[in-house]
Recover the amino acids of this structure.
């Protein structure tokens, strides 16, 4: 392998190791990093949904954005840009989150779940590959959401990162304005939202992974897309590294539990594990990046990616307020309908936004 592939392999190993350590320090099992789950927790923390077990301002997300932004500024790669079907990207982000919460995890958590022995995650991974492959079909047939415009000012590119800095300040203060009603931050007392690594450790982990992911362009949907299109395995090597790094520590930590049953924050409805990540893979391919990549692009000043991130946070609120989100007991009828609607919506967008 050339130097760049060794670098992304080392990045993947580092991310996997950091994820396992975060679990050891308090994060939920198989959830050292989960972009969708953590954005869902943030949506709950600011009161967008009232699912009491998933409310916490996750410092890892804040660190990912800030780490990417700082290294992009240092390397001269930070540039505010946007205007490529921005509102549509927001809606696609909503559906991408719904798919993730039907599965119970983003592509990054899917890899971490596989490294923890969760066989349900392998079924989800097959769905994700199928979704990206469908997206590649649309790309080959001229799919394009339009060109971005570059702003004369970089101010727009720092707005969402600054919002998350403000959230981190509220987290440090443990801010509760109204002791009776709660808010502006809500904190879970039980469930996954009550399980977290120390605040400064979680922020540092996010910063490190944000820097590494920005420098290597780490993206699972991009890796599958590139391999299908041009047989380039560069990005896939990074996720092999994540799997290996997490597995190496999961075994001595006692986190490795092979099987379908009794997996942490997972369900065994195989068709919906497949279709949930199918929707995520299809949306990620059409959007140009998986949930992790959207955060990194946001840190680089991409306001269209910021719209996707905002859409995912709002999508988490819809998922819990409208009972779309799965639970360890499975996926309810509303979640099943929402997942199918999301897939049909992505097909409609894929066919509608084709260049002649």
């Amino acid at each position: 392998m050339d130097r760049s592939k060794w670098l992304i392999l080392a990045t993947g190993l580092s991310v996997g190791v950091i994820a396992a350590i975060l679990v050891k320090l308090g994060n939920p099992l198989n959830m050292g990093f989960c972009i969708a789950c953590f954005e869902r927790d943030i949506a709950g923390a600011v009161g967008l949904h009232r699912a009491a077990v998933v409310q916490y301002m996750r410092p890892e997300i804040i660190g990912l954005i800030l780490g990417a932004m700082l290294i992009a500024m240092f390397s001269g790669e930070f540039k505010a840009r946007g205007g490529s079907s921005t509102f549509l990207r927001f809606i696609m982000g909503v559906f991408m989150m719904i798919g993730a919460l039907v599965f119970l995890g983003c592509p990054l958590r899917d890899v971490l779940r596989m490294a923890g022995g969760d066989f349900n995650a392998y079924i989800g991974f097959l769905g994700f590959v199928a979704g990206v492959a469908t997206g590649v079909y649309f790309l080959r047939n001229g799919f394009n959401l339009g060109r971005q415009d570059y702003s004369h000012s970089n101010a727009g590119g720092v707005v969402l990162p600054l919002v998350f800095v403000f959230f981190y300040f509220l987290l440090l203060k443990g801010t509760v304005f109204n002791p009776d009603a709660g808010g502006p931050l809500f904190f879970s007392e039980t469930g996954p939202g009550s399980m977290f690594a120390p605040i400064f450790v979680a922020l540092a982990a996010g910063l490190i992974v944000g820097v590494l992911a920005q420098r290597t362009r780490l993206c699972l949907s991009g890796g599958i897309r590139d391999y299908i299109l041009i047989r380039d395995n560069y990005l896939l090597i990074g996720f092999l590294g994540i799997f290996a790094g997490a597995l190496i520590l999961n075994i001595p930590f006692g986190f490795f539990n092979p099987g379908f049953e009794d997996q942490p924050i997972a369900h065994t409805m195989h068709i919906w594990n497949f279709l949930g990540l199918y929707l995520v893979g299809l949306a990620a391919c059409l959007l140009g990046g998986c949930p992790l990549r959207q955060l990194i692009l946001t840190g680089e000043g991409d306001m269209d990616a910021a719209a996707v991130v905002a859409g995912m946070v709002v999508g988490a609120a819809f998922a819990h307020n409208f009972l779309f989100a799965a639970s360890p007991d499975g996926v309810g009828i509303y979640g099943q309908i929402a997942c199918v609607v999301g897939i049909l919506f992505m097909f409609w967008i894929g066919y509608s936004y084709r260049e002649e």
Summary: The chain has one domain: 3-352.
